[in-house]
């Protein structure tokens, strides 16, 4: 997302082009190439395994995992369309040797895929909040999840579209540097892609898990409730506390019982991994967006090119972390991954 630029005193977003001190020398180029190849391989292997596992294993086909597949698809596209060109630029010390049109396509894909990742996490929070807070209006059929996933991708395309519509074609553009040229768009994309959805997502997750804890506490209290204790000592026997059969309230119809059910045990198990996924995403991407918006809001602030490169790499590493998180924190994913790896031997 315009991730190879710093701000100069003239107010232009300047990248690590020729003559800057952030370029990679031969050792740095070799490290960038090796790290890039390893990162691309890890992202492709891990996220492909996630998609294949959910498609092949019925036990993993839960509403939450549909969004996880969409998140994995965004990471796969990042590894195929963005990371190779990013690594190419890093190997050449941040100097862009390809066409400006390809640079604009790279910036647009970078913005879109990063936005899609966080919008998918937001969509999970919305879906889980509806399932817990307003279960009467929740539909477990995949239509709702598919509509939410489609909306996340359409919104992501809308955020990135101005780059492809000529916004990045500024007068006096340096063809040796690939960056987002318009400072207003840098601020706009940062706010839309990160600083607005993140607080909303955290608030919804907090409300969801708070409601889930209350529901589980009420359910345990109901299951472990004790019958009234019989008074001790002399005296006539206490009357039977249970009402006669004709006075007992009728059992609710099956439809009402289904409406009161909020989240199945399997879905609750899938939800346990979400706080780790969200935490890893915020840990990896918050430094990048802080640096990114600082350059847009403060043209005179000197941002070291090495810092820009470091926070960009950290953000991209997140794409390789999610399959590891699923393996460590979700026993069903771990079992399916183990079976898939055994078949490949």
UniProtKB/TrEMBL annotation:
SMART domains, per the entry: 7TM_GPCR_Srsx (SM01381)
Claim: Thylakoid is one of the keywords in the record: no
Pfam families tied to this protein: 7tm_1
Entry's localization field: Cell membrane
Pro residues bias (residue ranges): 231-255
Keyword Ribonucleoprotein: no
CDD domains (UniProt xref): 7tmA_D4_dopamine_R
Region (Disordered): 223-262
Entries under PANTHER family matching the protein: ADRENERGIC RECEPTOR-RELATED G-PROTEIN COUPLED RECEPTOR, D(4) DOPAMINE RECEPTOR
Family affiliation: Belongs to the G-protein coupled receptor 1 family.
A GO CC term assigned to this protein in UniProt: plasma membrane
Species per Swiss-Prot/TrEMBL record: Catagonus wagneri (Chacoan peccary)
Gene: DRD4
Annotated Gene3D superfamilies: Rhodopsin 7-helix transmembrane proteins
Residues of the G-protein coupled receptors family 1 profile domain: 46-326
Membrane-topology annotation of the record: Multi-pass membrane protein
Segments passing through the bilayer: 29-54, 66-86, 106-126, 146-165, 185-206, 270-290, 310-329
InterPro entries: Dopamine_D4_rcpt, Dopamine_rcpt, GPCR_Rhodpsn, GPCR_Rhodpsn_7TM
GO MF entry, a single one: dopamine binding
Name this polypeptide is given: Dopamine receptor D4
Leader peptide range in chain numbering: none
């Amino acid at each position: 997302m315009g991730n190879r630029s710093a701000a100069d005193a003239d107010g232009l977003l300047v990248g690590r082009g020729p003559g800057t001190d952030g370029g990679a020398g031969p050792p740095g180029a070799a490290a960038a190439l090796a790290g890039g190849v390893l990162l691309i391989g890890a992202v492709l292997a891990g996220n492909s395994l996630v998609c294949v596992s959910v498609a092949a294993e019925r036990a993993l086909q839960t509403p939450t995992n549909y969004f996880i597949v969409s998140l994995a698809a965004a990471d796969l596209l990042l590894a195929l369309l963005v990371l190779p060109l990013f690594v190419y630029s890093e190997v050449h010390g941040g100097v862009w040797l390809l066409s400006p049109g390809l640079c604009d396509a790279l910036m647009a894909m970078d913005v879109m895929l990063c936005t899609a990742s966080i919008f998918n996490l937001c969509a999970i929070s919305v879906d889980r909040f509806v399932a817990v807070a307003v279960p009467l209006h929740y539909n477990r059929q995949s239509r709702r999840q598919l509509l939410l996933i489609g909306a996340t991708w359409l919104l992501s395309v809308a955020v990135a579209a101005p780059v492809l519509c000529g916004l990045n074609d500024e007068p006096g553009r340096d063809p040796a540097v690939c960056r987002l040229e318009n400072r207003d768009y840098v601020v706009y994309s940062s706010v839309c892609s990160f600083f607005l959805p993140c607080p909303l997502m955290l608030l919804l997750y907090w409300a969801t898990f708070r409601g889930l804890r209350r529901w589980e506490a009420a359910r345990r209290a109901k299951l472990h409730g004790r019958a009234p204790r019989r008074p001790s000592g002399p005296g006539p026997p206490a009357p039977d506390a249970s009402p006669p059969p004709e006075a007992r309230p009728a059992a609710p119809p099956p439809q009402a019982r289904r409406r009161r059910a909020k989240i199945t045990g399997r879905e609750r198990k899938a939800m346990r991994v979400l706080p780790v996924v969200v935490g890893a995403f915020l840990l990896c991407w918050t430094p990048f967006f802080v640096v990114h918006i600082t350059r847009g809001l403060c043209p005179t602030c000197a941002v070291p090119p090495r810092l820009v490169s470091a926070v960009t790499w950290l953000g991209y590493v997140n794409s390789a972390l999610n399959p590891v998180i699923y393996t460590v924190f979700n026993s069903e994913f771990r079992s399916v991954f183990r079976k898939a790896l055994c078949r490949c031997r």
